[in-house]
Amino acid sequence: EVIQYKPSQYMAAFLIMEGVMVGVFASLDAMLFYVFWEAMLIPMFIIIGVWGGPNRVYATIKFFLYTFLGSVFMLVALIYMYFKSGSMEILAFHSLKLGLTEQVLIFVAFLLAFAVKVPMWPVHTWLPDAHVEAPTGGSVILAAIMLKIGGYGFLRFSLPITPDASNELDWLIIAMSLIAVVYIGFVALVQQDMKKLIAYSSIAHMGFVTLGFFIAFTIMARSEASGGIALGMQGGMVQMVSHGFISAALFLCVGVLYDRLHSRQIDDYGGVVNVMPWFAAFMVFFAMANAGLPGTSGFVGEFMVILASFRADFWFAFLAATTLIIGAAYTLWMVKRVVYGEIGSAKVAALQDINKREAVVLTSLAVAVLVLGIWPAPLIEVMDVSIENLVKHIAVTKL
User: Fold this and answer.
1) CA-CA distance, 295 to 237, in Å (whole number)?
2) 270: alpha, beta or left? (left if phi > 0; alpha if psi -120 to 50)
3) How many helices (H) and strands (E) in the chain?
4) In the beta sheet, which residues pair with residue 89?
5) Average pLDDT along the chain
6) Residue 163: count of CB within 10 angstroms of its CB
7) Section 202-219 average pLDDT
8) How far is Cα of residue 52 from the mean position of the Cα atoms in its chain?
9) Cα(116)–Cα(66) distance, rounded to whole angstroms?
10) Residue 198 in contact with residue 254, Cβ under 8 Å?
11) What was the pLDDT predicted at 216?
């Protein structure tokens, strides 16, 4: 939507957010990582708190408390490892010898920070509230980039620093991931608010990311081949990138409708295709991608993770694959009620189709989703070396 109140400060908050997020991904120093990690909260807190919806104060405080409290445990773990190694280099932590008890405690400390950010079940309840109250731009950044930082944390810290604890507790993460995939999918089915539905969809899709990362340990225990281990991790990373494009696009689609009708309730729409054909085409395409249609990026990551899950356990794969049915159910059920059918009201009949600015943004995201769906090889090749190194780290015990 168009921001009328203090637009320059709104843009400034996003630029600060961008700089801080680059800092999180680029940091090789643990304390610098932590500073950027916490600094991320401030611009997002301001974006939701100042430009958010009517219930924004509750949403911002809940968002801040969840993420901040989780991060405190991570700080304790980082300080402990600093005293143990004499260095704040993250790469020095990777080669640090730690006993199993130490590893488990450090792993749990990291889990509390990263699980909130992903977010994993059961610490996910802040996300739907934050999304519903955030302006469209805030929702896009929150879904597309901020959630991925939790997944990045697992790859950068939990897996290489505490491989034995990760191996011992992989069942816990797999269980939490599968509950997110299945249970949260059913929760999404009953939502009446489009933003809330997409927010719950995000939690279910991010469950695939953590499942892909931790299924590796079950595969390692059952076979010597490293192919399945790498496949799960590649799938998780592709899913992160793919979800960044698809969820951002869906939130933008909701933003386009909200800008015109000032409602996110599914029941207030109906027959949008009759008055906004171009918009309807984009929304249906992104909905299909969200449901995991082959040929879109939404399919590639999920398929890789399901394939890796088969190498670990049939029932893991079976439960993970239910998202292809549940995801299609809640996404297409929303699209059917919003886009198709008779025109729902006089307000819907008066809607204008997307303008050039909106068309350019949605087209660029559609191209990314399509290219990544048809030809994911370049993305997978880029991450190959990193994943090989990671597999070497987790395959060797530190005990």
Assistant:
1) 18
2) left
3) 21, 0
4) 29
5) 86
6) 23
7) 87
8) 21
9) 7
10) yes
11) 82
What is the 3-state secondary structure of the chain?
Answer: CCCCCCHHHHHHHHHHHHHHHHHHHHCCEHHHHHHHHHHCHHHHHHHHHHHCCCCHHHHHHHHHHHHHHHHHHHHHHHHHHHHHHCCCEHHHHHCCCCCHHHHHHHHHHHHHHHHHHCCCCCCCCHHHHHHHHCCHHHHHHHHHHHHHHHHHHHHHHHHHHCHHHHHHCHHHHHHHHHHHHHHHHHHHHCCCEHHHHHHHHHHHHHHHHHHHHHHHHHHHHHCCCCHHHHHHHHHHHHHHHHHHHHHHHHHHHHHHHHHHHCCCEHHHCCCHHHHCHHHHHHHHHHHHHHCCCCCCHHHHHHHHHHHHHHHHCHHHHHHHHHHHHHHHHHHHHHHHHHCCCCCCCHHHHCCCCCCHHHHHHHHHHHHHHHHHHHCCHHHHHHHHHHHHHHHHHHHCCCC
Q: Categorize the per-residue pLDDT at 35 as very low, low, confident or very high, splitting at 50, 70 and 90.
A: very high
pLDDT at 399: 65
Check if the beta carbon of residue 188 is closer than 8 Å to that of residue 197: yes
Question: CA-CA distance, 194 to 331, in Å (whole number)?
Answer: 10
Residues 38-84 have pLDDT tens digits of: 898 889 888 888 888 788 888 888 888 888 888 888 899 999 988 88
- The pair of structure tokens assigned to 113 is 């920070």
The rounded percent of the chain whose pLDDT value lies above 90 is 11
Listed by start position, the domains of the chain span: 1-167, 169-399
Q: List CB contacts of 392: < 8 A, sequence separation 6 or more.
A: none
- Which whole-number Å values give the CA distances from 91 to 28, 160, 230, 365, in the listed order? 7, 9, 21, 35
